[in-house]
Amino acid sequence: MGTVEPLEYYRRFLKENCRPDGRELGEFRTTTVNIGSITTADGSALVKLGNTTVICGVKAELAAPAVDSANKGYIVPNVELPSLCAERFRSGPPGEEAQAASQFIADVIENSQMIVKEDLCIANGKLAWVLYCDIICLDYDGNLLDASVFALLAALKNVHLPLVTINEETGLSEVNLKQKNPLIIRKHPVATSFAIFDDTLLIVDPTAEEEDLATGTVTIVTDEEGRLCSVHKPGGSPLTGAKLQDCITRAITRHKEVKKLIDKVIKSITPK
After folding, report:
1. Could you report the per-residue pLDDT of 120-160, keeping only the tens digit for each?
2. Residue 96: beta bridge partners?
3. Can you list the pairs that 63-71 forms with residues at least 24 positions away whose Cβ atoms lie under 8 Å?
4. Domains defined along the chain, listed by start
5. Which intervals hold domain Exoribonuclease phosphorolytic (predicted)?
6. Fewer CB under 10 Å: which end of the chain, C or N?
């Protein structure tokens, strides 16, 4: 890059409406999804956004529902950023960014109602499913949130749960592994993230370098009906209403692209 400082270098490109990696400002990196790759999980997906690589494994377990939510199961998302995925992360307990990402995913599940916790209840007050959703970043090059939401959705679409009944006489649960049903996914949330440059310019799907140089970021989550599930804006440059509307419009288009990718991969592995 020579002696040009990184921000100046970027500004030269942005003036020409393109980015150092050749993308236009509103263009995502090449996106791929594979599902069912972790055989030990009840559902899994691997998503790549350019170099950013995230895997999600869902493990289903049985538990008693909470006393105050007798008719609800549980969804427990957890985002991990191991030190292997980027030099910026250290080994040890989850850092700030991993915790913030886990909270963001929990909010997306709640706000979008992608899975309704009542659907996870097997017997009121007695038995319910717990879905542990572990999202692990294998390679970090920006835009963790979009990749994580995508991997979560694709993994959940891949989950099949065995039929569980409670034996009236013994009161014990009986699991029928021969009869499995897909999870009921009620909404399909998709995240679209932007980096804000010099307080005004928006670029979609930022790389790690772009995130570092940006004056802020914003993530828009929409569902298949174009409904806004959440706007996640951790500080940084404020956005005008018009700019936010631009982001929402772009997010709705992105939703269609992601949904198409998921449908295609599910179709390819469904037994004829």
Report:
1. 999 999 999 999 999 999 999 999 999 999 999 999 999 99
2. none
3. 63/127, 63/128, 63/129, 63/130, 64/125, 64/126, 64/127, 64/128, 65/121, 65/124, 65/125, 65/126, 65/127, 65/128, 69/117, 70/121, 70/124, 70/125, 71/118, 71/121, 71/124, 71/125
4. 25-269 (3.30.230.70)
5. 27-162, 189-252
6. C
